Amino acid sequence: MVLQLKNVYKEYRLDNKEKFTALQDMNMSFEKGELVSIVGESGSGKSTLMNLIGGLDSDYIGQIIIGEQDLKSFKQSELDDYRKKKIGFVFQSFNLIPHLNVMDNVTIGLTLSNVKESKKQEKAKILLDKLGLLNHIKKKPTQLSGGQKQRVAIARALINDPDIILADEPTGALDSTTTQQILDILKDIADSGKLVIMVTHSEKVAKISSRIIEISDGRLVRDEKNKDYISNYQNNDLIAKDKSVDFKNFESEISTESLHTLSEKDDSNNKLNAKQDLPQKKTKRKEGHLSLISALKLSLHNMWASKVKNILMSIGVSISLISLILMLSFGAGLTGYISDQALNYSSPNVVSISKKGATSIIAPQSFSQEEIENISIDINDYLEKNNSDFRVVSKEEDEYENNLSYGFNMLTGFGSGGSALAKIIYQPEQSENDEEVKPKECPIFYSYTTPPYYSEKHLLTENSKICGDGQIMLSSASAKAMGIEKIEDVVGKKVTLSINLPELKTPIETEVEISGIVDVSLFSGMLVMYVDYDYLNSRVKANNDSKGLSPTTLYITTNNKKTTSLIKDYISTRNDLSDSVEEKLVRMFDEMLDTFSIALTIIAGISLAVALIMILVVLYISVSERTKEIGVLKSIGARKKDIKLIFSTESFLVGLFSGLMGIIFTLIIGGILILTFNALIGFAPIRMMWYYFVEALAISIVISVLAGLYPSAKAGRLDPIESLRHE
User: What domains sit in the chain, N to C, each tagged with a CATH number?
Assistant: First the structure.
């Protein structure tokens, strides 16, 4: 006995909470080789009975005995295996997966069992050959006739060699000729020793059955055998030779057809029999389930079937990733450029010290002589504690062997009434028509004294040199402001320097020579002037009868990098001291860029959140669109985990493809931007680090997987019966 029902009772709870009895007092048993037709009016309970037998619905009262096991006692995982191995479903509407070809539709059950590809192909080809479909294995369902589709559905039902075939109106959508072909196939399946149970409204179908069961209002009203039915199951050796299909011992046929010689077959059988005679060790082997690789293959099939939708979705996600990578690259590029420039305008053996303050760059605070002496003493004490022999020596201590020099710098572009505090006055050459040419005034926006680390590498023209007594250096912007076309022609010109600092009693005006054009790093577009500190100090003393300038910057020339590092460490411990102007600017720009980066990160985060929602919506819609497909997969034994794995894998692939697409587009756009910036401004403030791409790819995958959690969980929870009814 293959199947037995004992006192099976099934009821449904309707929307108004009333109960509806679908089946009651169902008692029947079935044997191998039977071809059973279940007939009855619509709503009589036929499909409900099929769902119970097929393990799609386990909410019932009574017993359904399979072999010697009660189906009611099965866990969910055991029900999945039962549908996968013991039951084969054949549906009226075929329920083939449209984006899979014939071969993949037939082998989907083996895919869920993680059967090797070669074994799947072998089994499917033999089965499809029996059903006359071997030449159609590459076709999609839309390319097949109704009869061919049903034969594919039958092949899918048979591929795992189940004991029971459940056919729900298997000929309902077919013409009379095709109907007869399908009925012949179903009879041959029954003759091979399987139990075939059909739900049908057709009297023609019922008449060819070995047994007719009629259900009315959920009750068994007729159960009779067809006296005219000729079964070949009891005597398989006498099966008519003109039978076109023989499904007897399908599994053994699969295993033996792969052998090459009769002797190999005999040897194999002898070994098998010998093994069976030996005492068998009890080994627990885990049954095969859908593997990650198989899930990836299925997901790729699914995604390719909706490639336009998935490509557009990936582009949407990649746009967010492009903005994220470019934002990080611009931030790194600008920060790196500023740091490089600052490093270029400093020396590993020179420490710059200035006072901290909100306006320390615009209007630096000066040091008194007492403050300078105290700082020198404190630094020397710190160096001594850290076992350094170096000592800070000022000019006041040793005029010749000193290592402490002074600097003065401030914003001079604006004074009272809007006039510049520093300017150069230049007398252009007389014109050819002897007209009087008035002197030109060029305001100086920022005035520096030359740092001790400036050298020939900071000069822009070959005829330039570092300024000394009676000389100044100008930025290229200042040189161009004089109206001379070539900046190298500015070098050697005599100009009048006018300085009107707030602390001076009277303005200073002195004739100086332009010794060179200097690259002023971060101030390259500004009107900047450099002058020697000692020369400027001497002019202040001479013109104003004063003690001279109070330095705004102290420069300590050290003996090595280690000493430089120690002094900088000491400066970092002081709340009132800072290092060079360039380093201040770097920090200022870093802070600005950090703020800018945070703002861009928030914007990128919003766009990524939008991308996550977009993926979630698309995958959710995909679950709705593929509800019937999910029902089919569950009917052939797909576990809840398998369904979730398929959809989770799809969301992973969306993230992977989006990330890769974003990386490719970013490389292209970044390359174009680098070429454009280099052509326009001579450098590209973009640094695309390799780990930005890794991070972007990881983010893309993470948000896609997160977005797929709910749709995949929803797909796994779908009821197989409701899913199969979905249109």
Answer: 27-40+75-208+224-258 (3.40.50.300), 295-338+589-725 (no CATH), 347-580 (no CATH)
